[in-house]
Hints:
CATH superfamily of the largest domain: von Willebrand factor, type A domain
Shape: globular
Distance between the termini: 43 Å
Strand content: 25-35%
Low-confidence stretches: 1-27, 46-65
Number of helices: 12
CATH architecture of the largest domain: 3-Layer(aba) Sandwich
Helix content: 25-40%
Number of strands: 18
Radius of gyration: 24 Å
Largest sheet: 8 strands, mixed
CATH topology of the largest domain: Rossmann fold
Order of helices and strands: EHHEEEEHEEHHEHEHEHHEEEEEEEEHHH
CATH class of the largest domain: Alpha Beta
Amino acid sequence: MKVYRFFEVLVLVPLCLCSVNSVSAQQSGSAASVSRSRAIVSAAPTASAPASSTYYPSTTSYPTYNAPAPEFKIPEEVAVEEFVNYHKHRLPLPKWGQAVAMDTRWGNDEFSRSQREAVLQIGFTTAEVNERTDLRPLNLVLVIDKSGSMADDDKMSRVKEGLRTMLTRLRPNDLISIVTFDYRARVLLPSSRLGDGSAMRHAIDCLVPDGATNLHSGLMLGYAEARKHFQKDATNRVIILTDGIANQGVTNPSRIAADSSMYNKQGIDLSTIGVGLELNNDLLRTLARSGRGLYHFISDYKDIDKVFVNEVQSLISSVAKNVTVRIEYGPGLQLEKIYGYAPTNSNGSVSIVMDDMNNGLTQVIMAKFRTNSMNNAFPVKVRLSYYDVKRKCVVEEVQDLRLIPAESDSCELLADVEVKKNFTIAELADSLFEMSGFARRGNHSQAQNALDASVATAYRRYPNMEDQDIRFILDIVQGYQRDLKAYNEYNRKSSCGGCR
């Protein structure tokens, strides 16, 4: 989503409520869409290592006799906001006593006749927790898939390393239990205080892949274990790690989701972590969304660091829930696009319901506007509302911005360096989203055009591509660009009988 920078007036209004709802934690941000898109394109055949004789990269000669077209793998989903928020943003931290800091800024608060567009960035940060004792008590159940397929591609080793990393970030008094499942489920480590971690380390060492995938049985046993030790003022969380599709016991995704939701309504949260490409992506995301958690995906050790190291704090510490953002703008301004999320539009405003926020979060919304007049300044108002978990209050914050006509006929759209960076990533991710839509409809030429345009724009803004965060997303987009070019080139040569 897009947002712009620069605020003029800030108002904080804490509205303390008489009644307090139960509070549930959630991870600070999913990265599954990014990680799975990267894994899919990385697994595709390349010029140096073709998967079979039927794949012909653009750098090779193309046969002309009855060879099947190379396969182009389309990413299952592209959540644009996850690409934009994959990296940590450089934004102001909350002040003392403030749960969430909001930072609004334009790419440039001036617009010109030649450039009637404007980019808005709305940023959010929550405080890091320096002392783990500041976090709420934790009742955590790890539900681990140990079916036979977890032996493939070093997946179980990746899971074990991640769990050992998580162990070092937990506290001696945290309640931890481990449930495993293959064709059946069992409690490997009954719920107990972590202590020095020796019991958890031993349980992790005992994980050996074997059998089928009874995901429903493992998940239900995990919830039951969490329910035994449920604490009203604690984080009660189940984390399930799996690499497969349910093929034993209850296998209907709707039934699994419905049974999971019953425990979520009782105050037990759920996060899901997928390992490997052969899994039910939609089910894991649905389960996490219902469970007030987020869905992560592990394809390699970079993902392990992100899920278990960088975000372990946010796994267990909620600071704000029921978060909504509303952008209000008057006549003369047209909202062209919100990058990602699921905005609700009305006349002169747009609302976005955000995920719950946890410690250590940075997040931005990116938006693009177009002006219809050169004669006026345009006011824009951004409203943030959330339930402050620590203060047990609803907090509302309002920031007012103005977009004004430039004195010159032209001006820089992205004068703010942070907006320039995040908007470039948003456009790259959005082109990947558009490419997926075109490719699914069979229009591979337009799909390639979408990627070509965003890649060219990124290099025009960053000729040396010195920013590693942009480079990371660009590499993913260019991987699909490369494979799509090979696919299109092969089909063009085949359609004209191998002509050059």
